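haha ok so turns out i had the wrong file open the whole time. this is the CORRECT one, sorry everyone. sequence first:
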Amino acid sequence: MGMNYATLDEDSQRMNLIPQVHHRLVLGSAFGAITAAAIALSLGGHALALMIGALALGIVGLLAATL
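then structure:
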């Protein structure tokens, strides 16, 4: 019985590690997309900025939906 609890605990630790890594990837990509949009806006390329902004929002929305 004690052995089963130990393996279950190890499995749960492994499962908890995956969402943490996933959250970091999501936050990193969202931050990168927003930063890219901000840079494009500051350079004054409005059409490009709107495209990047729309793409960034789409990516963030898609990633938020998968969480």
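Residues 23-67 form one domain.
again sry for the mixup
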